[in-house]
TrEMBL record:
Molecular function via GO: aminoacyl-tRNA deacylase activity
Highest taxon of the lineage: Bacteria
YbaK/aminoacyl-tRNA synthetase-associated domain segment(s): 47-167
InterPro entries in alphabetical order: YbaK/aa-tRNA-synt-asso_dom_sf, YbaK/aa-tRNA-synth-assoc-dom
Organism, as annotated: Streptomyces bingchenggensis (strain BCW-1)
Organism lineage string: Bacteria, Bacillati, Actinomycetota, Actinomycetes, Kitasatosporales
Pfam family, one: tRNA_edit
Protein name according to UniProt: YbaK/aminoacyl-tRNA synthetase-associated domain-containing protein
Length: 180
């Protein structure tokens, strides 16, 4: 992560994060010490993966992860879930996600729903600090990555943390083949 001039423990930067993400870091539990969750300041205009990789280097393709919110529908019920995959893959919404949620139909959640429910900004959604009870589906390849770069809850800034830390988040489930 040497490409980033300024990285420091995210718990030292709580004021730069959205409230849900800061709260999640304050309440951190799990096998990875919270000090291993790092914050890097990045230009909000470079929040999208393709632009980020172009600016900071192609090595990020293998070490970046995306978190997207999906909606599974069955009858009149909608289940929201977060899916975390490496950035060079895409979420298998109609296969792995639909089956895991037991949904008749699954799709990406509308942006206003995703942002309103998470309290995060477009381009910065992260699996840290999601609403209680949400499934957090993590592709096994993410958990196997030594360190991943992921959103911080805002467009400005990213988090760097061990992939195994994402697999240990509240509500997290490893799902083989989530990223295709």
């Amino acid at each position: 992560m040497d490409a980033f001039d300024d990285h420091r423990p995210a718990v030292e930067c709580l004021d730069l994060l959205t409230a849900p993400v800061a709260d999640a870091l304050r309440a951190w539990r799990g096998p990875v010490p919270v000090e291993q969750v790092l914050y890097v300041d990045t230009d909000p205009d470079k929040a999208d993966t393709a632009v980020l990789v172009e600016h900071y280097g192609s090595w990020l393709v293998e070490q970046s992860a995306n978190c997207v919110v999906v909606a599974g529908k069955r009858g009149g019920e909608v289940t929201l879930a977060a899916c975390v995959v490496l950035s060079h893959t895409r979420v298998d919404v109609n296969g792995a996600v639909r089956r895991r949620l037991g949904a008749r139909k699954a799709s990406f959640a509308p942006m206003d729903t995703a942002l309103g429910e998470t309290g995060m900004e477009f381009g910065g959604v992260t699996p840290l600090g999601l609403p209680a009870g949400w499934p957090v589906l993590v592709d096994a390849a993410v958990a196997d990555t030594p360190y991943v770069l992921i959103g911080s809850g805002r467009r400005r800034g990213k988090l760097i943390l061990p992939g195994k830390a994402l697999a240990a988040l509240p509500g997290a489930e490893l799902l083989e083949g989530l990223g295709i």
